[in-house]
Amino acid sequence: MERGSFFRRNLLVLISITLIFIIINVINMRRPTIKIPKPQKPPAPCPSLVSEQTITPLKNTSHFLVSAYMDQRGKDFDIRIIGMFKRDSIQPLHCLFCCSGHFSPTTPATVLPHSDHFGFAFCATDVLCKIPQNCDATHVTLLTEPTPEKAYNQAWLPIRNKKEKYIFNFTVCISNLFGDYNNVLQFTQALEMYRLLGVDRVVIYNTSCGPDLDRLLQSYSDEGFVEMVPWPITEHLNPSPGWLFSEHGGDIHYYGQLTTLNECIYRSMERSRFVLLNDIDEIAMPYQHENLMSLMNMLLEQRPNTGVFLIENHIFPKNYFEPSGKFHLPQWSGVPGVNMLEHIYKEEPDRQIYHPHKMIIQPRLVEQTSVHEVIKNFGQRYKVPPEVCRLIHVRVPLRGLKQDQLTVDNRLWDFQEKLILNVDKALKKVGLL
């Protein structure tokens, strides 16, 4: 009996263990399988060939790209690319964006050559692109075929003006330095005069300048007052030293001046309230205000819908000197360039013929510009009376008048004390005094 009981107990234990294993297996069979997701591959990065140049050849074309900017003032486009295109070989192009690391679908490009080209083969050109939906675009390029696979060897442009806000009241755009320009004294006087007039930033496009001026500009750049933009146009084109093809020849007008002026407008669009487009030997001088912002506040109060203010050019011939010589300062005798304080005799403009102006603009109200007038703009244009503001432009004579036919204008002398002090300081800083 004891042996039988032993076997019965063991059999019951074995049956219980077996039932437990069966129940566990049934439960496991009914439990849903949990799949651990495989790590997703990150999106394929856009090509790493991002252009760091200010002039970028566009592959498979005769054209050149300069920069790309957000521009959402129109309904049909989001991006404006500034370029230099050969007018006789403009073909259909396609916009391709880098969107958070991956390619977008291509969108058709709208190519807009500027109407002012003065007969040259190349002209300033805008290319308008629409960003596809759900694309956080960071870079853009242009293709001759609507196939993104062709983009791997393309140079991409970073998209600018995405998150900038006004940090300057007034910017001056100086379109081009070339020909080893070394007019150091006049350049320094102009920069320091603009600083006294309340300018925050001067943007200069530099193809070449003399060694003394190069040292000076580097100093101003280091302190942040001047923004130097390299402009190596001679590496890509044969730029003209003049404005008319029939007289000067070359590939493009005046070292690409129209392209740089337009580029500077968009460079400044989201960071500066006002932009002055002129040359370094010109000063936009207010005659009823102590600085340019006071002038603009008054003009906008009178004409609130105006985006373009035309400033009349007045020439001060550099061959006529103020007779007393009181500003023929000995410390400047070894500095190359023109001393503007010595030239107070002014030609009166002949308004019976075309007389050029330069412009102070609100950059968000301008689409395209030429040298002396805008091509496309929003809002109104206004010619500022010369008794309110005019250009002091010290250069070779235009009309060939005799000295007794000229008018005395010594407005610069109102600033002479601070101006001389600041010019001396700038020149000493770079070892030119």
TrEMBL record:
<keyword id="KW-0328">Glycosyltransferase</keyword>
<keyword id="KW-0808">Transferase</keyword>
<keyword id="KW-1133">Transmembrane helix</keyword>
<keyword id="KW-0812">Transmembrane</keyword>
<dbReference type="GO" id="GO:0005737">
    <property type="term" value="C:cytoplasm"/>
</dbReference>
<dbReference type="InterPro" id="IPR008166">
    <property type="entry name" value="Glyco_transf_92"/>
</dbReference>
<keyword id="KW-0472">Membrane</keyword>
<dbReference type="GO" id="GO:0016757">
    <property type="term" value="F:glycosyltransferase activity"/>
</dbReference>
<protein>
    <recommendedName>
        <fullName>Glycosyltransferase family 92 protein</fullName>
        <ecNumber>2.4.1.-</ecNumber>
    </recommendedName>
</protein>
<comment type="similarity">
    <text>Belongs to the glycosyltransferase 92 family.</text>
</comment>
<dbReference type="GO" id="GO:0016020">
    <property type="term" value="C:membrane"/>
</dbReference>
<feature type="transmembrane region" description="Helical">
    <location>
        <begin position="12"/>
        <end position="29"/>
    </location>
</feature>
<dbReference type="Pfam" id="PF01697">
    <property type="entry name" value="Glyco_transf_92"/>
</dbReference>
